[in-house]
Amino acid sequence: MKRSPEEIIAMRRLVIDRFHRLNCAPTVTINMDALLEPALRWKDQLNTDPRAKTHRITLNHIILKATAMALREHIFFNYDYDGKYHIYPNDRIDIRTPVDLGEFPMHIVIPETDKKDIFEIASTFNERLDDVKKNIDVQMQKYIDFQQKRKGLSTLVNLFSEFARRARPLIPRWEKMWFDIQHKYIGTFMVTNMGTLGVIDCHGQLVKPSIAALLVLSAKDIVEIIDGKPVNRKYIGLALEFDHRVTDAGEPGRFLATIKRNIEEPEKYCI
Amino acid sequence: MKHIDTEEYIARRLHLIRTFSEKRVGPTVLATIEVSMDNALKFRERLNRESDIKVTINDIIIKATGNALTKHRLYTWAYNGRYRLFPTDRIDIRAPVDVGDDLGMLIIRDVDKKSIFDVARESRENLKKIKENTNARLEKIAKLNRRLKFLRPIISAARNAVDIATIFSKDLEEWLYKKHRELMGTFLISNLGPLGVNDVASPIVTPSIVQMNVSSIEKRKTIIDGELKEISIIKLIGKLDHRITDVAQTVRFLKDVKKNLDEPEEGLKPIL
Fold first, then answer.
1. Which residues of B touch A1 (CB under 8 A)?
2. Residues of B in contact with A221 (CB under 8 A)
3. Residue among A19, A197, A223 minimizing CB distance to B242
4. For a Cys staple, B43 with which of A115, B153, B251, B264, CB 3.0–4.6 Å?
5. Is B247 on the interface with A (CB under 8 A)?
6. Mean pLDDT, 10 residues at a time, over chain A (271 residues)?
7. For B198-231, what is each residue's pLDDT tens digit?
8. CB neighbour list of residue A212: distance below 8 Å, 6 or more residues apart
9. From its phi and psi, is residue A40 left (phi > 0), alpha (psi between -120 and 50) or beta?
10. What sign results for the dihedral spanned by CA atoms A254, A256, A257, A262?
11. Region B173-182: what's the mean pLDDT?
């Protein structure tokens, strides 16, 4: 470990506060497998298009589009929930997806994902990723220095954040305003793709204002008997975590089934 | 489980009830990867043919994890659930042992520096002691808890007072975690394989940042080079406190454990 304990805490301060007990939801996770072969074929076909020369289409882009289209049919999961007695609708579907950049995950938001075609999603994603990669080290060091070197000011900011966290739920208008500000950085729905990490199962911890979040697991080969012969079929694991206070397994199950359908028939449902 | 005296049962479980108190449970994320155990099982078979010391799958997993932790020291540190981390350079692995209705704690110290035979020998000796002593130890704790039943509110208040004192005194907190390390080691592996469990979800409690659960061995059919073959798979389930670490970092640690199990000749050597 290259960083000192104090630096790690300074770096993760935002995450520590985000996962504050007051923000954590009672999370339930449900799983489903989707046949991957149609999406892989579609990806190869899209990559022959001249528009894919600058921004190659990946499976991740297809999954983001499939999820955004499923959210149109299940818009409730795109809303904000304050953890108490208020649900706030959102009319935009802005999907965010964390990317692994070593020590700290950065989030990329694709504004209005449902209205963009797959090439626009790829270009927005790649441009923002380049931007994040270029600035992450400088921005992170700035934040660590602020927490460590400007102790007085950072303590004041931290105390104010703590006060605001407790006060906001008492005034719904403030809470809604805070959620709207946050949408710029965290979008309205999160899709975490852990496929490249080889994760075959995952249970997450949902934090407010999310009602649900999608985890994409790694692809796996399952032996099936086709025409009397054993054949490897490629499946991808999908896990949906949801806040049990505002929904039960039924509606999230149907939402997950819609995402699965969109991935299995991308040419029909991801346009 | 037979009919139980509820008062007596609570007295025996009081330390675990306190361990899993709401204040200590962190925002938990679980990430699972699969590992082929074929190489590790062949390696174990060879070791057991050549030596009198019987090496178990649990010993191999403990050693593989200890070696992987040398590259991920953060996961042996203590986290107080707020804004402090307490580093250590020791890799002392604790593995809970099922002793009937109770839980024994097997602790192997400095796992990274020991050979697989040292780990196996120490594990055997400790296990014997645990089986002999756990019941008596828990009986002693239960007796004390029964006697102090009416002092429970005062004990709770005292614990809360110490919690508050640690906010102001880093030294006191450091001393408490040092004692915790001496008693409980620095990293937890919960191997549920012998019970036949193939998946598990459980909460993480401070001061742990990451803990690892291990599932039972599963035989799986797969097609390799056009041929239908059967392989032995286990799941490594990383349980992480999302405030301090992320899935990607934890999976890199799990993959290092997997690498040590895939290449046991190299991966299970002592690291000096």
1. 72-74
2. 222-223
3. A19
4. B264
5. yes
6. 84 88 90 95 94 92 96 95 89 93 85 94 94 87 84 82 85 89 92 92 92 94 85 92 91 94 93 82
7. 888 888 998 999 999 999 999 988 888 888 888 9
8. A77, A189, A206, A240, A241, A242, A243, A247, A252, A255
9. alpha
10. positive
11. 92
Q: Which of B29, B32, B84 is closest, CB to CB, to A204?
A: B29
b/e sequence A117-155, b meaning 16+ C-beta within 10 Å: ebbbbbebbbebeeeeeeebeeebeebbeebeeeeeebe
What is the distance in angstroms between the Cα of A219 and the nearest Cα belonging to chain B? 12
Judged by CB atoms closer than 8 Å, whether chains meet at A199 and B33 is answered as yes
Does residue A35 sit in helix, strand or coil? strand
Could you say which residues from 49 to 78 on chain A have a Cβ atom under 8 Å away from some Cβ of chain B? none
In this prediction the ipTM stands at 0.84
Question: Two tokens at B183?
Answer: 């008693």
Closest-CA residue of chain B to A199: B33
**pLDDT confidence of B244, banded at 50, 70, 90?**
very high
Q: Tell me the Ramachandran region of residue A34: left when phi exceeds 0, alpha when psi lies from -120 to 50, beta otherwise.
A: beta
Amino acid, res. B145: N
Structure tokens at A157: 């900011």
In this structure, how many other beta carbons lie within 10 angstroms of the beta carbon of residue B153? Answer: 8
d(CA A206, CA B176): 31
* Of the candidates A5, A193, A3, the residue with the CA atom closest to the CA atom of residue A98: A193
**How close B24 gets to chain A, by Cα (Å)?**
11
Does residue A197 sit at the B interface (CB-CB below 8 Å)?
A: yes
Q: Which helix (H) or strand (E) holds A232?
A: strand A229-243
- Closest by Cβ to B244, choosing from A12, A24, A100: A12
Mutate to test the interface with B, among A6, A15, A16 (most CBs of B within 10 A): A16
Q: Please report the beta strands in B162-226, taking only residues with DSSP state E, as ranges in sequence order.
A: 187-191, 210-214, 218-224
